[in-house]
Design brief:
A 7-stranded antiparallel beta sheet has the order 1-5-6-9-14-15-16. It has a 3-stranded antiparallel beta sheet with strand order 2-4-3, with helices on one face. Strands 7-8 form a two-stranded antiparallel ribbon. It is 34% helix and 24% strand. The longest helix is centred in the first third of the chain and has 22 residues. It contains 9 helices and 16 strands. The radius of gyration is 19 Å and the shape is globular. By secondary structure, it is an alpha+beta fold. It binds adenosine-5'-diphosphate and magnesium ion. The site of magnesium ion has 7 residues, from β9 and α7.
């Protein structure tokens, strides 16, 4: 997943605690290996190479994640769309590469969740466009932190925090006190814009400062959250944090709200009873969903 994983937990037995952390790390590594689209041999690599030729067999686990992704695509008319990768694959943020104009226009019709043919019973997935590619970067880390917390719970742990990049899931509190979760100042490294006391929730942040480069010609910030309608980096906000019960939802929602922007994004969150959000816009103004203001 190209990201840092951290685990904090309490257990009376130090050896058990150590083993639990190792198990979480192994599980994360497994998810990363299965769904890294760049790794030949991964499930996602195979799907991306073959699904345009006809439906391919997929694991129940992948079917579940794609099903969830499609739920958020339908809810937002495609603001969240794992087939963003049809264009997204042509960006390389580390080396400062963006798709050319023609390349982007050619691949744009392949960004369309309605062309993803998922058969959850037969466990098959087909692509309805030859240039279609999928990437789970907007949902897999939230899924992974949920799985980690499930594993820790099964081992008797009741106080833990697991983070994978911008996605965190908290189990219980920090032994009598809430966990203090920070939202970074998006334009200043090491500066925290806001700290929230939280327990027993998931918390996902999407920011335009995670993976980006500055276009030398225009000065524009080219970053990793893609507006599926254009195949370009989404503008308007610079940071979105979503709070809710599970990372499997807060992760795709943070990406989605980022794409939708302040007004539509807050309207979406306010329509979902279990979720709240904090947005920082391009002017540095902070916006809260109604559940946090009341
Ligand atoms: P991170 O925790 O990596 O910062 P985010 O939750 O902000 O992740 O999601 C960004 C990732 O989501 C991108 O790196 C990309 O893999 C994927 N992504 C980008 N745009 C979209 C989109 N419109 N719909 C679904 N996934 C997206
Ligand atoms: Mg996300």
């Amino acid at each position: 997943m190209g990201t840092e994983v951290s685990v904090t937990l309490w257990h009376d037995d130090a050896l058990l605690a150590r083993r639990a952390i190792d198990a979480v790390m192994a599980q994360m590594q497994g998810i990363d290996e299965r769904w890294n689209p760049a790794a030949p041999g991964s499930e996602l690599y195979r799907v991306n190479r073959q699904a345009a030729l006809g439906p391919v067999a997929i694991s129940p686990e992948l079917a579940g994640v794609i099903d969830k992704a499609l739920y958020y695509s339908r809810l937002t008319e495609g603001a969240f769309d794992i087939s963003f990768a049809s264009v997204g694959q042509f960006y390389d943020y580390r080396t400062g590469v963006a798709p050319g104009e023609e390349q982007r226009q050619d691949a744009l019709p392949a960004i369309d969740y309605r062309l993803l043919q998922l058969d959850r019973d037969a466990l098959r997935l087909g692509f309805g466009h030859p240039a279609m590619r999928i990437d789970l970067g907007g949902i897999a880390k939230g899924y992974a932190v949920d799985r980690a917390i499930d594993l820790l719970w099964q081992r008797g742990i009741r106080h833990a925090s697991v983070s994978a990049g911008g996605d965190t899931r908290l189990l219980g509190d920090r032994r009598g006190r809430p966990w203090m979760v920070g939202i970074r100042n998006p334009r200043q490294d090491d500066d925290v814009a806001l700290v929230l006391p939280l327990e027993d929730v998931a918390f996902s942040t999407s920011g335009d400062y995670e993976r980006f480069f500055i276009d030398p010609d225009t000065g524009a910030r080219i970053h990793h959250i893609i507006n599926p309608r254009t195949g370009l980096s989404a503008g308007g906000v610079v940071s979105v944090s979503v709070i809710g019960p599970r990372g499997f939802d807060t992760d795709p929602l943070s990406t989605t709200v980022f794409v939708l922007g302040v007004d539509q994004g807050l309207a979406l969150i306010d329509s979902l009873p279990d979720f709240d959000a904090v947005l920082i816009d391009a002017q540095g103004l902070v916006h809260y969903s109604s559940g946090l203001v009341e």
